[in-house]
Amino acid sequence: MSVSIHVDGKREGAKINKNIYGHFSEHLGRCIYGGLWVGENSPIPNVNGIRSDVVEALRRIHLPVLRWPGGCFADEYHWRDGIGPKESRKRMVNTNWGGVVEDNSFGTHEFLELCRQVGCEPYINANVGSGTVQEMAEWVEYLNSDGDSTIARQRWANGHKEPFHVKYWGVGNENWGCGGNMQPEYYADVFRRYQTFCRTYGGDRLVRIACGPSGDDPRWTQVLMEKAGRYMDALTLHHYTVPGTWEHKGSAAGFDLPRYYETLAKADTMAYLLDKHLAVMDIYDREHRVGLIVDEWGCWHDVEAGTNPGFLYQQNTMRDAMVAALTLNIFNRRADRVVMANIAQLVNVLQAVILTDGEKMLLTPTYHVFDLYQPHMDAKLLDCAVFSPVMEGGVKQVSASASLKDGAVTVTAANLSAESEAEILLDVEGFERAKAEGRILTGECHAMNTFENPEHVRPQAFNGFRQTERGLALTLPSCSVCAIRLHE
Ligand code: AHR
Predict the structure, then answer these.
(1) Is 477 helix (H, G, I), strand (E, B) or coil?
(2) Mutational test site, ligand 1, from 66, 76, 178, max ligand atoms within 8 Å of CB
(3) Fewer CB atoms near the end CB (10 Å): N or C, the chain?
(4) How far is the CA of 12 from the centre of ligand 1 (A)?
(5) Cβ-count burial of 205 within 10 angstroms (0-12 exposed, 13-18 middle, 19+ buried)?
(6) β-pair type (360-363, 460-462)
């Protein structure tokens, strides 16, 4: 066997927060408009303006938490523009993304209706870059107040007597960049000030989320933790996998093998980034009270030919699926400290799990990875040692993580090689006689779903196990990810 995976099925580790399987939706390109929101009068089947095919697909993967309204858009968003009668909502130009008109027809109530239909928690990212403390404080009051104030009455007048009980609250986005170009010392003070006015209404204490660094910038983390750590519940991290350079990322669907391995090597740096930032956080937070939230991650390729460059629309292949499998295994393995992650973005933008074209919809290979990994949500992490050859670019050929829930062990193992199969010996201590069943997603590394052939890549049942004296023997084809369930 070239690879062995040893899982200790008897020693339970941290709970894998289901919010690690979260998503992000910004007013960007066709994510909100067309992807999620079609309006009540659309011929596309919808409930209260939200497209039903997308909601149904998201319910199937039990999407736990959804971040909105941005991204860079968040720091230019004024929530009052998006409430009340649609015909009187303010029109603005989305200066960040494509210069298109934003008519604010999708606002606070529509977002929370989307979350209600999907069955997920809302995570709202407030405007700090160009919004006032008062504006932000009144948004919190509008959403969560159970009192009889003028602001709460506005919510009643807009059709929602009950508070929305929003829990996750981002205080700015990328404030080192599009959110105001601040320096960490300045933002730390701004955060301290804004979070003071994130009031608790009823029992709804907000989870206060501070803007963290981009990629490899431990100084931002250090300053934030030192000066404002005690005021926050979580700190964010953004890390995109950008093949090539920002100027020449290359096409999502057209790449050669060196670029494939380079992409995986760049995605794999997530493990290093988590360790690095968490080590800095530990200095100021020995009790591990502050969680880490990776609220933007995923592959960022060149836009599809002929599409608006500001819309960030890209196809999604098995290469992206491998990045998702690798990254989700990395998050699971740091379940002790990573409390949420949000892939960018939900529909039609960057590494989307869903693409739409008018009334058509398809599920990308990345969607199917989220589907396969579902049993990890809120399960207990198990120690999982992987002995594997290393590929070009320095990444292990096989990536895996394991968890225990309801008496069953789930191991998600990805063979990241685009060329060679992986012969694996899997031994799970304490589950030597367990029954094994599996599901696999596999395809040539360029394989993808298109509107002409939307089911080309999809999971299949996997039964290719052989019981040996030393554990289960299995062979994973090149470019594949398998979820193996072991139970009595
Ligand atoms: O996801 C696209 C953009 O990437 C977001 O708006 C911003 O936060 C990040 O730079």
Answers:
(1) coil
(2) 178
(3) C
(4) 36
(5) middle
(6) unpaired
Nearest-angstrom CA–CA distance, 231 and 154 = 30
Could you give the C-alpha distances from 375 to 84, 207, 237, 354, 369, in angstroms and in order?
Answer: 40, 25, 25, 21, 12
Which residues does 94 contact at the CB level (< 8 Å), separation at least 6?
Answer: 27, 28, 73, 100, 101, 102
Q: Which residues line ligand 1 (CB under 6 A)?
A: 26, 70-72, 173-174, 296, 344-345, 350
CA 72 to chain centre: 16
Q: Is the pLDDT of residue 223 over 90?
A: yes
The 10s digit of each residue's pLDDT in 30-69 is 999 999 999 999 999 999 999 999 999 999 999 999 999 9
Which residue type, as a one-letter code, is found at position 352?
A
Q: Is the pLDDT of residue 89 over 70?
A: yes
What type of residue is 312?
A: L
Q: What is the pTM of this model?
A: 0.97
The candidate with the shortest Cα–Cα distance to 175, out of 166, 167, 165, 184, is 184
The phi and psi torsions of 82 (rounded to 5 degrees) equal -115, 25
d(CA 34, CA 53): 12
Q: Nearest 5 degrees, angle CA 115-CA 455-CA 295?
A: 35
Q: What's the average model confidence in pLDDT over 145-154? A: 97
Rounded to whole angstroms, how far apart are CA atoms 412 and 465?
14
Sorted by where each starts, the structural domains of the chain and their CATH numbers stand as 2-8+382-487 (2.60.40.1180), 17-378 (3.20.20.80)
Coil, strand, or helix at residue 361? strand
Q: Distance (Å, rounded) from C-alpha 4 to C-alpha 11? A: 19
| 1 — pLDDT class (breaks 50, 70, 90) | low
Atom of ligand 1 nearest to the CA of 214: 10
| Per-residue b or e along 216-225, where b marks 16 or more CB atoms closer than 10 Å to that residue's CB | ebeebbbbbb
Residue located nearest, by CA, to atom 4 of ligand 1: 71
Question: Residue 398 is encoded by which pair of tokens?
Answer: 């096989």
Q: In this structure, are strands 234-241 and 207-210 parallel, antiparallel, or unpaired?
A: parallel
pLDDT of the residue at 214: 87
